[in-house]
Amino acid sequence: MAAQHADSVAAQVAAGLVKLSLALRHEAWKEARGGGLTPTQGQVLSWLLLQAPGQCPTPGELAKALALSPATVSEALRTLEAKGLVRRRQSGDDRRSFQLALTGAGSRVAQASAGWADFLAVAVDSLPPADQVALLRVLVRLIRTLQLQGKISVARMCVSCTYFRPFAHPDPERPHHCNYVDAAFGDGRLRLECPDYEPAPDGRQETAWEAWAGRWERAAET
Ligand code: SF4
C-alpha cells in the first residue's frame, strides 16, 4: 500500500514541491546571511513591507500570518529593533499591546532583499503563458486546501477577498472584477498576497470559491 502511494501522481508532485522548497530555503539562507539576518528576520521584514501604507500590524498578527510561535516572533523583533530596522509603538491604552512598522532603514533592507526568489520567477517565466496561468490556478487551490487544513497561515488571496467578483464579465480573457481598483482581470492576475485584501464574510467566501473553483472543476471533468 505504501509502495503504491509512493508511485502515485500525488506523491511525485509532493516530491517535486519538496525539491522546490529546498531550493527556496537554500536561496533564502544565502540572501539572509548576506544581509546579516536570519531567514526568520528576513521573512518578518518582507511581510512588513507587504502591508498597505499606514497599516501597522501587531506581533500577534505577524506570528499568525507567518505561522511562527510568539517566542520566535518576539526574538526576531528584539534583534530587528536593536538593528534599527523595525520599530514598535504602543497601541492605545494597553501597555502590552504594540503595533509594528519598518523604519526607513528596515524598508530599504526589505526592498533590497525582496527579489531573492526571482530565480524561481525566471524559471516559471520560461513556461508557455497558458501553463503559467494553469500553475497559478493550481497554487491557489493548493494554498486554500492547506489553509482549510490549518497547515499554512491565511493568505491574502483574491479568491477569499471581499472585493473579488468572479466571472462578473463575459470577456474570457478578463472575466473577474476587483471592486477595490474597479477593474476587470483574468486568472493570470490573481493575487496570492495583496496589500489591499479584506477578507469576505464566510458565506461570501464560499460562494465566490464555488463560482471560481467550481468552473475549473467542471471544465476538467468534460
Ligand atoms: S483587493 Fe487585492 S485581493 Fe482583493 S480582489 Fe482586488 S486584487 Fe484581489
TrEMBL record:
Keyword tRNA processing: no
InterPro entries, alphabetized: ArsR-like_HTH, HTH_MarR-typ, MarR/SlyA-like, Tscrpt_reg_MarR-type_CS, WH-like_DNA-bd_sf, WH_DNA-bd_sf
Record keyword Transmembrane present: no
CDD domains, per the entry: HTH_ARSR
Matches recorded under SMART domains: HTH_MARR
UniProt keywords, alphabetically: DNA-binding, Transcription, Transcription regulation
This protein's name: MarR family winged helix-turn-helix transcriptional regulator
Organism: Carboxydichorda subterranea
Signal peptide residues on this chain, from the entry's feature table: none
UniProt xrefs under SUPFAM superfamilies: Winged helix' DNA-binding domain
Domain HTH marR-type: 10-144
